[in-house]
Amino acid sequence: MHSPAELSAMWDVKQVFDPQNLLNPGKIFPQHEANSWVEQPPRVRMPVAADPLPLQPGELLAPESDEEAAQLLAQCTARNRPVLLMGGGEQAQAPFPLPDGNGLLLSTARLRGMREDAPEDLFITVGAGTPLAEVQDWLGRRRQQLALISPWPEATLGGLVAANINGPRRLRYGALREQVLCLTVALADGRLIRTGRPLTKNVAGYDLTKAFIGSYGTLGLLTSVTLKCWPQPRLRRSLLVPVEDLRHGLLWARQLFPLTLVASALLLCRGSQLAGRYSQQLRAAPYVLVYTAEGLAADVESELAAVASTLQRVQAPEPVACEELSGDDLWCELLRGEGENGLRAREMYTAREAIPVVVRLGLAARDLPRWLIDQQQLLAGCDLVVDVGAGLLYVVIPSATAQTATLLENLRAAVPADEGYVVVMDQPRPSAAFEVFGPPSPSLELMLGLKQRWDPQAILNRGVLLPPRR
Question: What is the DSSP letter of 259?
Fold first, then answer.
């Protein structure tokens, strides 16, 4: 069922989480009954080419196949040459600073295109370097879609999975972790593994797929991604509510949340230019509450009728109905820095300084409203998107100036590490000015243990997610 490389990768996980083999011995790996020990699977490694990598620091590697990618990583590990992974084309900027010394760039630009298309089974497998927009266009020709979205047009599927980017559609279709069925991954030591299978109910062995989602390329190079496909909705319609006061907006959103059966967005936004251009009524209000529903026409109309009735009951302003604008559109607009404060920053600062710093803040959904109300002064001057259902707040700091670091530090101080997190999603690149992930999580030792098993020389995205090897 599993290849030797996959079985050895699962054994690595077992050694990190249960080194003494106390949990269900013999359940997955063969067990010798006489002395009750588990036999370690043979260590599988790709042969390393004898020729050295004839590249100067900073040069670009662009493998054309999974096997070539695995071989290149094995060579880099053997010669201790750090590798910074990147997608979005060979001319794209690196997302993080290049490691010092003899580091190399590795692009997934040539690991792209269709690999397996199963429209009847509602899944698709593509190269990790394939842009999301390209796949959406392909699926749209047969009225299917991926339940993914990105504010950045050049985003690749491998990049979205590695960074665990979730948009408002999470409310309707589930998180990205639920959309990814399986991955093909090249490990740093040259092993090429396939995690998961293209099945919704897949419980064979360890679910290694989840380990790579949000790993920022520190555990392995994603070479292909298999994702769920969904039918395009027959109808998508939004109700936009002008909101004068943050407290009222959060209260109304809480009243609407129990109605979200076919809703694909329930957002409270500040700074949207799109909403303001759509209606004079919305332009005059500092906030807009967005409720987008999609699916069968009868379901959408019924749910939005219930939403309108609830808004009337709580004495909210009359909503503006539209089919041209959705929660996705406002989310993308603001995260790209095209909101009110972002556009103003472009007039005040240099081109580099005006690039926004996008921060994602996560708290329990029940705690986020009160936290927001308490921190209104701290967030003044920033465009905001509150994803009510997910308990996420997106803060768009309109310029990358000296004050940005102070604001970021204050945000992290206001969110206890054991209750939430503050992550920098986007910033001027390449840049080391702003700490991306903040204080280490309580699971750091486990993360470092798995990193040591799969990338013992720490060549992959060195220093990006995990602290330097001790």
Answer: G
CA distances from 192 to 76, 222, 234, 363 (A): 15, 10, 40, 36
Cis, peptide link before residue 95, omega less than 30° from 0: no
Count how many residues are written for the chain.
470
Q: 392 falls in which pLDDT band (50, 70, 90)? A: very high
The alpha carbon of residue 155 and the mean position of all alpha carbons in its chain are separated, in whole angstroms, by 11
Q: What is the pLDDT of residue 26?
A: 77
Report how far apart, in Å, the C-alpha atoms of 299 and of each of 233, 235, 305 are.
Answer: 11, 9, 10
| 110, 224 Cβ separation under 8 angstroms | no
Say which residue the tokens 């972790």 belong to.
Answer: 177
Token pair for residue 7?
Answer: 């079985």
**Hey, what's the torsion of the CAs at 99, 100, 106, 107, to 10 degrees?**
70
Tokens encoding 89 = 């084309």
267 CB-side CA count, 13 A:
32
Nearest CA to 134 out of 118, 148, 123 is that of 148
C-alpha 379/C-alpha 391 separation (Å) is: 17
Radius of gyration, alpha carbons of the chain: 24
Cα dist. 176→72, 150, 215 in Å?
29, 12, 13
pLDDT at 419: 85
Region of 24 please: left (phi>0), alpha (psi -120 to 50) or beta.
Answer: left
Strands 180-186 and 192-196: antiparallel
CB atoms within 10 A of CB 287: 22
Q: 156 pairs with which residues across the strands?
A: 131
pTM: 0.90
Are the C-beta atoms of residues 186 and 240 closer than 8 Å to each other? no
Q: Which of 287, 290, 241, 289 is nearest to 383 (CA)?
A: 287
The Cα–Cα gap between 49 and 47 comes to: 6
Task: Residue 203: count other Cβ atoms within 10 Å of its Cβ.
Answer: 6
Predicted pLDDT of residue 128 = 96
Instruction: Give every CB contact of residue 233 below 8 A, 6+ residues apart in sequence.
Output: 294, 295, 296, 300
| Contact call for residues 93 and 71 (beta carbons, < 8 A) | no
